[in-house]
C-alpha cells in the first residue's frame, strides 16, 4: 500500500474566504455541510492572527449556488480564550449543530517561535485572564440552531472533541468519536472515545474507547472522524502522530498517518486501531451515493496539498494518495472536509495559503470520483 503511485484528480479550485494583508486574516480547521435546500455552510476558526493565538472565533460562510460564491465570514461564537476547530452537522428541518473546542494559549506565551512584538500583544490580552475564568471556558462544546444558522442557543459542554465534530446516524442519534476532553491535559493524553446523543446534542452519554495498537500510546492518537455504513457498521479514522519521531515509527507506523477502527454495536465496542500505512492526516470520511467511501486528508510533505483515498469494499482496502491539489507553499494546511452535491460531484473545503507569505485562507475544490468527468 505504501508504494502506490500518486494520481491527480481533475478538479476546479476556488476561494471561500481570503483576507490578504489583514492582521486577523487567518482561517483554519473548517468543516462543511449541505442543508436540505442545497445551501452549503462552512464553519471554521477564523478572524484570528495565526495558527496559534488568543483570538480564534467560530465563524460561518454560506453559499447558495453549490459553492461558486460565498458570503462574508460571520462570527457566531467568540469566547475570551481561543476557539478552535469548528464542525458542523445538518440535523434536518433547518436545524444545525456546530462544534468546537477551546484552548489555553498562555502555555505558548514564551515559545521561541513567537515574535517579540507578538509576545507583548499576547501579554496584554492575558492580563484579563484568570485561572478560574479560563478553566470555566476550556473544553469541547456544541451550539444548536433551529433556523439554519441565523440564530444560536447557548454553548453546551460535551465529553469529547474532534475537528469535524459528530455525525448524524440514520436513526436520528448523534455519534461523536473524539478525544476525551475534561481538562486541558486530556487533549494530549486521553484516549479516543465515542459519545452519543439521543436528543439532538443537548445531552451526551460516553460509550467506549478505541483500543490502541501494540507499542503505541494514547498520547499519539488525535482528531478522529467516523462514518456509518448502511449495515450500521461504524468506521472510524484517527490521526496518529509522534512528535518525538521515535515510538510509533519503531512500531512500523508512519507519523502523521491514519489508523482505522470499526464498531458493529453503535459505538459500544471498537476494534483495536490498525495503521493504514500512508502519510496524511487528519481524516474526514463520507459515503458517496455510489457506495464508495471517500477519505480526505492533508498532505504535509512536499508536494504539499490535499489528498483522498477511496474504498470500494466498505473499508476493507484503500486506494490512497489521489491528489486533489498539490500547490501548497508549506505544510500549514489541511483538515479537508467533503460533501456530495446533487449531481454526484464532490466538494472539498480546507485551509491553505493561497500564495506564499500569506496567512491561511479557506479554499475549495470541486471534483468527481475517478473516471467521472466534471461537467
Topology:
Layout: E1 7-8, E2 11-17, E3 26-34, E4 40-48, E5 57-63, E6 74-77, E7 82-92, E8 95-103, H1 116-126, H2 131-137, E9 139-145, E10 156-158, E11 160-161, E12 167-168, E13 174-180, H3 186-189, E14 192-197, E15 205-209, E16 221-228, E17 234-240, H4 247-250, E18 257-263, E19 274-279, E20 281-287, E21 293-299, E22 304-311, E23 319-328, E24 334-340, E25 346-352, E26 361-367
Parallel strand pairs: 1-23
Antiparallel strand pairs: 2-26, 3-4, 4-5, 5-6, 7-8, 8-9, 9-10, 11-13, 12-13, 13-14, 14-15, 16-17, 17-18, 18-19, 20-21, 21-22, 22-23, 24-25, 25-26
**CATH architecture assignment name:** 6 Propeller
- Number of spatially distinct domains: 1
How many strands, what sense, and barrel or not for the largest sheet?
5 strands, mixed
Give the tally of β-strands. 26
Q: And the CATH topology?
A: Neuraminidase
What is the averaged pLDDT score?
Answer: 94
Helix and strand sequence: EEEEEEEEHHEEEEEHEEEEHEEEEEEEEE
Task: Indicate the low-confidence ranges by residue numbers.
Answer: none
**Tell me, what is the CATH class?**
Mainly Beta
DSSP helix fraction: under 10%
Beta-strand level of the residues, as a percent range? over 45%
Q: Tell me the structural class.
A: mainly beta
Report how far apart the termini are.
32 Å
Q: How is this structure best described in words?
A:
It contains four helices and 26 strands. 44% of the residues are buried. The radius of gyration is 19 Å and the shape is globular. 7% of the residues lie in helices and 46% in strands. The longest helix is centred in the first third of the chain and has 11 residues, at 116-126. It has a five-stranded mixed β-sheet, with no helix packed on it. It has a single domain (7-367), classed as Neuraminidase (6 Propeller).
Amino acid at each position: 500500500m505504501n508504494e502506490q503511485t500518486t494520481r491527480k484528480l481533475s478538479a476546479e479550485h476556488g476561494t471561500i474566504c481570503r483576507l490578504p494583508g489583514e492582521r486577523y486574516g487567518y482561517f483554519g480547521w473548517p468543516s462543511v455541510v449541505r442543508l436540505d435546500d442545497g445551501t452549503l455552510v462552512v464553519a471554521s476558526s477564523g478572524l484570528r492572527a495565526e495558527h496559534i493565538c488568543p483570538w480564534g472565533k467560530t465563524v460561518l460562510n454560506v453559499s447558495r449556488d453549490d459553492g461558486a460564491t460565498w458570503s462574508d465570514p460571520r462570527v457566531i461564537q467568540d469566547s475570551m480564550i481561543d476557539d478552535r476547530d469548528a464542525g458542523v452537522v445538518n440535523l434536518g428541518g433547518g436545524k444545525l449543530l456546530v462544534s468546537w473546542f477551546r484552548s489555553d494559549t498562555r502555555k505558548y506565551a514564551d515559545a521561541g517561535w513567537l515574535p517579540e512584538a507578538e509576545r507583548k500583544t499576547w501579554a496584554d490580552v492575558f492580563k484579563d485572564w484568570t485561572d478560574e475564568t479560563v478553566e470555566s471556558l476550556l473544553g469541547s462544546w456544541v451550539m444548536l440552531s433551529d433556523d439554519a444558522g441565523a440564530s444560536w442557543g447557548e454553548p453546551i459542554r460535551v465529553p469529547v472533541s474532534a475537528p469535524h465534530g459528530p455525525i448524524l446516524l440514520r436513526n436520528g442519534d448523534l455519534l461523536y468519536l473524539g478525544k476525551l476532553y475534561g481538562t486541558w491535559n486530556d487533549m494530549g493524553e486521553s484516549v479516543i472515545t465515542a459519545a452519543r446523543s439521543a436528543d439532538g446534542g443537548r445531552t451526551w452519554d460516553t460509550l467506549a474507547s478505541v483500543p490502541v495498537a501494540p507499542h503505541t500510546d494514547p498520547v499519539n492518537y488525535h482528531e478522529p472522524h467516523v462514518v456509518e455504513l448502511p449495515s450500521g457498521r461504524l468506521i472510524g479514522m484517527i490521526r496518529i502522530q509522534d512528535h518525538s519521531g521515535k515510538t510509533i515509527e519503531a512500531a512500523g507506523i508512519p507519523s502523521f498517518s491514519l489508523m482505522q477502527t470499526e464498531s458493529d454495536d453503535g459505538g459500544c465496542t471498537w476494534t483495536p486501531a490498525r495503521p493504514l500505512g500512508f502519510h496524511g492526516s487528519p481524516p474526514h470520511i463520507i459515503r458517496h451515493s455510489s457506495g464508495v467511501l471517500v477519505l480526505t486528508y492533508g498532505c504535509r510533505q512536499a508536494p504539499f496539498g490535499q489528498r483522498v483515498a477511496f474504498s470500494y469494499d466498505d473499508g476493507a482496502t484503500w486506494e490512497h494518495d489521489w491528489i486533489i491539489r498539490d500547490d501548497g507553499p508549506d505544510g500549514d494546511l489541511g483538515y479537508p472536509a467533503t460533501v456530495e452535491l446533487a449531481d454526484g460531484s464532490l466538494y472539498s473545503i480546507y485551509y491553505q495559503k493561497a500564495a506564499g507569505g500569506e496567512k491561511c485562507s479557506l479554499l475549495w475544490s470541486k471534483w468527481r470520483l475517478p473516471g467521472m468527468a466534471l461537467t
